[in-house]
Amino acid sequence: MNSTGTLYGVGVGPGDPELLTLKAVRILQSVPVIAYPATPQGSAQARDIAAQWLDDKREIPIAMPCMLDRGPVNQGYDEAALVIAEELAAGQDVAILCEGDPLFYGSFSYLLQRLGDRFPCVVIPGINSVSAAAAAAATPLITGEQRLTVIPATAGDEVLRRTLLDSDSVAILKPGRHRPRLLELLRETGRADDVLYIEQASRTGQRIIESFEEIPATPGPYFALFLVVRAENRLGTGLVD
Ligand SMILES: C[S@@+](CC[C@H](N)C(=O)[O-])C[C@H]1O[C@@H](n2cnc3c(N)ncnc32)[C@H](O)[C@@H]1O
């Protein structure tokens, strides 16, 4: 038996509480301590998604001051890692909640780097936002020989341009303020007709825009993504395997 606690990275899925896995629920019910990213305004998406399973836990919010500035973000991880390490050293199991999948652009990766070599660690995968968005739009993401590239909108113009030209399917995450620039790159690379834009996949505010012209050329929300798929992947066009 371990004398220290186990660190769990728990994926809570893209937003719909019904998209938590049975295993995630079992782990959340069993641990005495949870940790989760929280904004200075107190918003904590991962916690909200799993809220019904979190009664009577010791809670450790992980401060996420400003997503653009790595300095304070790293400080937030350092401070949270210290508090979490104390709990683990005292023999308490700790679950770090992560929106979507913990290892898919997940903040859990940064805590794993800080704690994974000192404590036993178990990761529970979650449904990621790309799968949730394709499901919301009922659109095949990749089939047969097709290739998928996942890329953040923070990438430079040239990398995004090359990706759009080279990949059959492209998922562009974190569009936010980059939305106008992405629309321009989609037009420039001839992929405008291939685009789907999905906000808040699986959540009550879910919005799907299937026509390039209807996507606003203004900054947009954080919880959104672009899916670029070949025309033959769209409904009614006849997939070839
Ligand atoms: C830091 S990444 C986290 C990804 C997450 N770990 C996952 O597995 O999908 C945050 C980005 O994921 C995307 N995202 C997360 N949840 C989403 C949702 N429900 N609908 C649309 N996009 C989402 C957005 O592009 C957002 O900017």
UniProtKB/TrEMBL annotation:
MF GO annotations? precorrin-2 C20-methyltransferase activity
Q: In which pathway does it act?
A: Cofactor biosynthesis; adenosylcobalamin biosynthesis
What Gene3D superfamilies does the record point to? Cobalt-precorrin-4 Transmethylase, Domain 1, Methyltransferase, Cobalt-precorrin-4 Transmethylase, Domain 2
**Which residues span the membrane?**
none
Q: Does the keyword Signal apply?
A: no
Query: What Pfam families does the annotation carry?
Result: TP_methylase
Q: Does the keyword Transcription regulation apply?
A: no
One of the GO biological process terms: cobalamin biosynthetic process
| Domain Tetrapyrrole methylase: residue ranges | 6-211
Sorted keywords for this record are: Cobalamin biosynthesis, Methyltransferase, S-adenosyl-L-methionine, Transferase
As for family, the record states:
Belongs to the precorrin methyltransferase family.
NCBIfam families referenced in this protein's UniProt entry, alphabetically: cobI_cbiL
Q: What is this protein called?
A: Cobalamin biosynthesis precorrin-2 methyltransferase
